[in-house]
C-alpha cells in the first residue's frame, strides 16, 4: 500500500520545469516518474497546469500542481494499494472532477499515476512492461526516428514538423536501431557537403534551412542509401506534418492531400501523422479515402489519446492509426484504454514521446507491454531521446529468445 507521495519541480529537455513524483510503498519500494511536455499540442489535450507567476521560470513553474499533489492527492491515496491501477486512476479522476483535468492539472495526476504503476511493478518484482502486458505477448516496437526537425520544434527549418526514418526491415530492434543511427550520421555528412547546418532541434534531428519540405524527404532517402541500406525494403519514411500548426492559406487541405499522394507514389513513405488539421474531420476522411490503403494515417492532435475522439474517428474512417501520449489524457489506465480501443478496431498504434522530454523511460515499457508495434522517440541523439531507445535495447536483451521485433509486418498492408 502507498505510504508516501512526494512531488518536486525538476527540469525537462527544453530547460522548463516539470513534475517528478515518488510513490513509496509500505514494503519499502519507491516508484518514480517524470512528466513530459509538448509544444505543438492538440486543443483537446488534458490541461498541463503551470503557475503563470512571471517572476519564476517565465511563468512556467509547476509549484501549483505539486501543491495539488500534496494537499489533494496524497491524503486521498495514502493506504491505497497500487496493484489496482484502475481504482487508483479512477480516484484521481474523481478528485479532479473536470473533463480535462484542469483542477489538479494533468501533470499532477499523470505523475502520480505513472509513479504508482512503477512502484507496483517493483513491488511485484516484475519489469514494468510485464506488469502492463499481463500474460500477453511482448513485442519490441519499430522505432520511428525523427532525423529532420521542423515546424514548432526548430525555427528556420521546414514547415512540416518531422521527417522520420523507419528501419522496419530487420530481424531485431538492435539491428533496426543501428541502421537508424548510421542513417542519422550519413544524413549529417550529406548536410555538411551542401554547407547546411547540422545543429539539432528539440527532438535531436537536424534542422537545416531547406527551401521545400520535399527536399527533406529526398535527403532522408539519400542518407538511407549512403548508409548502404535499401529504401523501400529495409528502411522507410514517416512524416509528422503537424498540420494544425500550418497556415491554412499556405497549405489548404486539398493541396496537402495532393502532396501526400505524390509522395506515397514516388517515395517509400509508409506513415503520415496529422496530415490534416485537428478541426477538419471531413478532410481526414477524404485523405483516408484517397491514400488510406497505401499509407498509415496517424491522428495525434486529432485524437489526443482520448477514447471519445478515437471512437468518433473509427466511425468516420478518419485515418487508420492513433498516436498515444500519456500526458494528452493524464492517467495510465485511460492511456491503456485508448491503445485497446485502437487495436480492437484493427488500427495502428504509435507510442510517442513529447518534444519536451525527460530521462523517464515509461513509454519504452508501454510500447512493449501493449504490443503497440511502433514507437516515436526522436533522433538517436540527446539523452532524453536515447534513454527510451536504450531501455528498449535492455528489454530486448532481458527477453532473450522471447523477444519478437514487430518489423516490416507493421506496414505490410501498405506495401503490397
Ligand atoms: P509535441 O510534438 O510533443 O510538441 O506536441 C510531438 C508530436 O507532434 O508528435
Ligand atoms: Zn504529432
TrEMBL record:
**What residues bind substrate, as annotated?**
153, 162, 273, 300, 352-355, 376
Tell me, which GO biological process terms does this entry list? Answer: glycolytic process
Known pathway: Carbohydrate degradation; glycolysis; pyruvate from D-glyceraldehyde 3-phosphate: step 4/5
Chain ranges of the Enolase C-terminal TIM barrel domain: 137-413
Q: Kindly give the SMART domains that the UniProt entry links to this protein.
A: Enolase_C, Enolase_N
| The protein's Enzyme Commission number | 4.2.1.11
Which UniProt keywords are present, listed alphabetically? Answer: Glycolysis, Lyase, Magnesium, Metal-binding
Q: Which organism is it from?
A: Geodia barretti
Q: Where does this protein hold Mg(2+)?
A: 240, 273, 300
The active site lies at: 203, 325
Q: What is this protein called?
A: Enolase
> In the record, what terms sit under GO molecular function?
magnesium ion binding; phosphopyruvate hydratase activity
Origin: domain of life: Eukaryota
A GO cellular component annotated for this chain's UniProt record is: phosphopyruvate hydratase complex
Co-factor binding comment: Mg(2+) is required for catalysis and for stabilizing the dimer.
Q: Does the keyword Metal-binding apply?
A: yes
* Top-level EC class as recorded in UniProt: lyase
Tell me where in this chain the Enolase N-terminal domain is found.
2-132
Amino acid at each position: 500500500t502507498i505510504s508516501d507521495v512526494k512531488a518536486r519541480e525538476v527540469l525537462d529537455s527544453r530547460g522548463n520545469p516539470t513534475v517528478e513524483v515518488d510513490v513509496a510503498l509500505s514494503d519499502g519500494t519507491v516508484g518514480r516518474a517524470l512528466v513530459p511536455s509538448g509544444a505543438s499540442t492538440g486543443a483537446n489535450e488534458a490541461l498541463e497546469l503551470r503557475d503563470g507567476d512571471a517572476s519564476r521560470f517565465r511563468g512556467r513553474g509547476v509549484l501549483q500542481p505539486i501543491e495539488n499533489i500534496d494537499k489533494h492527492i496524497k491524503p486521498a491515496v495514502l493506504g491505497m494499494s497500487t496493484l489496482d491501477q484502475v481504482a487508483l486512476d479512477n480516484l484521481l479522476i474523481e478528485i479532479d472532477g473536470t473533463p480535462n483535468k484542469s483542477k489538479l492539472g494533468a501533470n499532477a495526476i499523470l505523475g502520480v499515476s505513472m509513479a504508482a504503476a512503477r512502484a507496483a511493478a517493483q513491488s511485484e518484482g516484475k519489469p514494468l512492461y510485464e506488469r502492463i502486458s499481463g500474460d500477453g505477448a511482448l513485442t519490441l516496437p519499430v522505432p520511428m526516428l525523427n532525423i529532420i526537425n521542423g515546424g514548432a520544434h526548430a525555427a528556420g527549418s521546414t514547415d512540416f514538423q518531422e521527417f522520420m526514418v523507419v528501419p522496419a526491415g530487420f530481424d531485431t530492434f538492435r539491428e533496426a536501431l543501428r541502421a537508424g543511427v548510421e542513417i542519422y550520421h550519413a544524413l549529417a555528412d550529406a548536410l555538411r557537403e551542401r554547407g547546411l547546418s547540422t545543429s539539432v532541434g528539440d527532438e535531436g534531428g537536424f534542422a537545416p534551412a531547406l527551401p521545400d519540405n520535399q527536399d527533406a524527404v529526398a535527403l532522408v532517402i539519400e542518407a538511407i542509401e549512403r548508409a548502404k541500406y535499401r529504401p523501400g525494403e529495409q528502411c522507410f519514411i514517416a512524416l509528422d506534418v503537424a498540420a494544425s500548426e500550418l497556415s491554412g492559406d499556405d497549405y489548404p487541405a486539398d493541396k496537402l492531400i495532393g502532396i501526400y499522394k505524390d509522395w506515397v507514389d514516388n517515395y517509400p513513405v509508409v506513415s503520415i501523422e496529422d496530415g490534416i488539421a485537428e478541426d477538419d474531420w471531413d478532410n481526414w476522411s477524404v485523405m483516408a479515402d484517397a491514400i488510406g490503403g497505401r499509407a498509415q494515417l496517424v491522428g495525434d492532435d486529432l485524437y489526443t489519446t482520448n477514447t471519445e475522439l478515437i471512437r468518433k474517428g473509427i466511425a468516420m474512417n478518419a485515418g487508420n492509426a492513433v498516436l498515444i501520449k500519456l500526458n494528452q489524457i493524464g492517467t495510465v489506465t485511460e492511456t491503456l484504454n485508448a491503445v485497446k480501443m485502437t487495436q480492437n478496431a484493427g488500427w495502428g498504434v504509435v507510442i510517442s514521446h513529447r518534444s519536451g522530454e525527460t530521462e523517464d523511460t515509461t513509454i519504452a515499457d508501454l510500447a512493449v507491454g501493449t504490443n503497440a508495434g511502433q514507437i516515436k522517440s526522436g533522433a538517436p541523439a540527446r539523452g532524453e531521446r536515447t534513454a527510451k531507445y536504450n531501455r528498449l535495447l535492455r528489454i530486448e536483451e532481458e527477453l532473450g529468445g522471447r523477444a519478437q521485433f514487430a518489423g516490416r509486418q507493421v506496414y505490410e498492408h501498405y506495401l503490397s
